[in-house]
From TrEMBL:
Organism phylogeny: Bacteria, Pseudomonadati, Pseudomonadota, Gammaproteobacteria, Thiotrichales
This protein's record includes keyword Coiled coil: no
Entries under Pfam families matching the protein: DHOR (PF06537)
Keywords: Heme, Iron, Metal-binding, Signal
Name of the featured protein: Putative thiol oxidoreductase
GO MF term set: cytochrome-c peroxidase activity; electron transfer activity; heme binding; metal ion binding
Domain of life from the UniProt record: Bacteria
Keyword presence, Iron-sulfur: no
Leader sequence residues: 1-18
Start and end residues of each Cytochrome c domain: 66-212, 311-443
Length: 443
């Protein structure tokens, strides 16, 4: 047991590890929005183009700025930045009276055989906004029930359990619909995650299989097209998307209503006639060059360096291993040798995720399967940059639906394969728990 523990500690990179080519020690509001220090000069202008496309508000077509028009007809936000403020995370509304500003709701229906399909009228995502003349799809609201947890040292924590309701249907009753609310996750090291090979991800499944704890994650294999080999999904909260390019094109399509080569048709279903008849902003609205610029921008953002390690942080790092967090929140991986741009190749990345799906139990489940992931399976959330969350945005949420207002609340929602880790945190002494949280804040 002691030998296993020492082995685990060796897996966690020593505090303060920094690859100064690709990381930054900035811990200000701009911390997640800076380029990698070693970004080649030749890429600066494309990086800046990508930043503008990501930050700016898109406009309705036709317009005097045809490069950035085509918003909607149905959309959730005017810009990418709205849901990923400062390239960090969004949050959930605090009450049913408050609209979702950096959160969205995915939809599906099931048939008699239990197969899952996009909603026949509303599609796979509720678009709460629309251009003039087109009805919006409806409104989503979050309601909370409070649940309290008492920790071993007597501290009481109030958790809030969300449920989502839909109202104001623009195109007829929603019917029996499966919903999944999601806040915008932080966009750290997106290109590096894209540059990790399937084999590197699979190595960890072997490691987990050798553990006595019974924590074995599942790769989310995805087949983009019949003529392409499957690739492990790694983007999105259920790892339902395999490549960064696809993730970005889908975000433009679903969240802003901007078409691209991969999503050439507006996201209107057959019954949404005013949506289908609305003017287009181009064929497609997002050019290949624009997509490539956003991809480069998100890929070459500097990753945050962990804070300097103190005695308490070191002690917290030990708690992270002792509570078995480390089995899912894999401390380090190395990107593929042949990754492009070359700046991203063969880098050690300390994302604190195995990029695998884990059953997190009924309390976190959304009961809405997505591709091969079940309603209770989620991708291990990367923890890098966790301590910067509240630096880059005033108010943030944790977990897929932002129900947790603090990192401790997020830990206390862990169930299923992570139940023992959660229970270990509840049993910790005050000093152990504070050290664990200090370690997480140092990332
Ligand atoms: C309405 C809110 C919203 C807007 C607007 C939005 N996103 Fe997101 N974004 C999300 C959510 C929610 C997820 C997680 C989605 C999921 O797992 O299904 C996400 C995920 C992502 C991811 C993957 C992150 C990860 O950890 O895997 C990327 C990259 C991304 N968005 C880029 C963009 C870009 C580029 C735009 C603008 C075109 C954009 N987003 C606009 C809410 C938003
Ligand atoms: C069985 C795998 C597993 C174990 C063990 C585990 N986690 Fe997690 N963790 C996850 C998954 C999966 C998520 C995403 C859940 C969601 O979004 O609903 C997550 C999310 C989190 C988050 C929220 C991150 C964010 O960006 O919102 C924190 C913080 C966290 N884990 C910390 C810990 C700590 C600390 C431990 C040990 C006490 C731990 N986890 C143990 C799988 C695990």
């Amino acid at each position: 047991m002691i030998r296993l523990f020492i082995l685990l500690l060796a897996l966690i990179p020593a505090g303060g590890f920094a690859d100064t080519d690709i990381s930054s020690d900035e811990r200000s509001r701009r911390a997640l929005a800076l380029p990698m220090p070693a970004m080649p000069d030749a890429l600066i202008s494309q990086f800046n183009d990508g930043r503008s496309l990501f930050n700016q508000m898109w406009v309705i077509a036709p317009s005097t700025t045809p490069d950035i028009d085509g918003l909607g007809p149905l959309f959730n936000s005017l810009s990418c930045l709205e849901c990923h403020p400062g390239n960090g995370r969004g949050r959930a509304p605090d009450s049913p009276g408050e609209p979702m500003r950096s959160m969205l709701v995915r939809l599906s229906v099931t048939d008699d055989e239990g197969n899952v399909w996009p909603h026949p009228v509303y599609g796979e995502q509720l678009q709460e906004r629309a251009i003039p003349g087109v009805p919006a799809e409806g409104q989503a609201r979050v309601h909370y029930e409070s649940v309290s947890v008492t920790l071993a040292d007597g501290v009481e924590i109030e958790l809030r359990r969300p449920t989502i309701s839909l109202s104001h249907p623009g195109y007829g009753e929603f019917g029996d619909v499966l919903v999944s609310g999601r806040i915008g996750p932080p966009l750290i090291g997106m290109g590096l995650i894209d540059a990790i090979s399937d084999d590197t991800i699979l190595q960890w499944v072997d490691y987990q299989s050798s553990l006595p704890e019974g924590i074995v994650g599942r790769p989310h294999w995805l087949q983009a097209a019949a003529d392409q080999p499957p690739r492990i999904g790694r983007f999105g909260v259920k790892a339902g998307i395999a490549t960064l390019e696809r993730q970005i094109a889908q975000a433009f399509h679903e969240d802003l209503g901007i078409t691209s080569a991969a999503f050439p048709r507006e996201n209107c279903t057959a019954g949404q006639t005013a949506c289908l008849a609305a003017p287009s902003g181009g064929d497609p609205e997002l050019t290949e060059q624009q997509l490539a610029a956003v991809n480069l921008y998100l890929s070459l953002l500097a990753i945050p360096e962990p804070a300097v390690e103190t005695e308490q942080i070191r002690f917290g790092r030990q708690q992270f291993a002792a509570a078995a967090c480390i089995h899912c929140h894999r401390p380090a991986m190395t990107t593929a040798k042949d990754a492009v741009p070359a700046l991203l190749a063969n880098r050690q990345v300390d994302l604190y995720s195995d990029l695998l799906l884990h059953d997190m139990g009924p309390d976190l489940a959304d009961h809405r399967p997505e591709a091969d992931a079940s309603g209770s399976e989620w991708r291990t959330a990367p923890l890098w940059g966790l301590g910067l969350a509240e630096q880059v945005a005033d108010r943030v949420g944790y977990l897929h639906d932002g129900r947790a207002r603090t990192v401790l609340e997020a830990i206390l929602w862990h169930g299923g394969a992570a139940q023992a880790s959660r229970d270990a945190v509840i049993e910790m002494s005050t000093a152990e728990r504070e050290a664990l949280l200090a370690f997480l804040q140092s990332l």
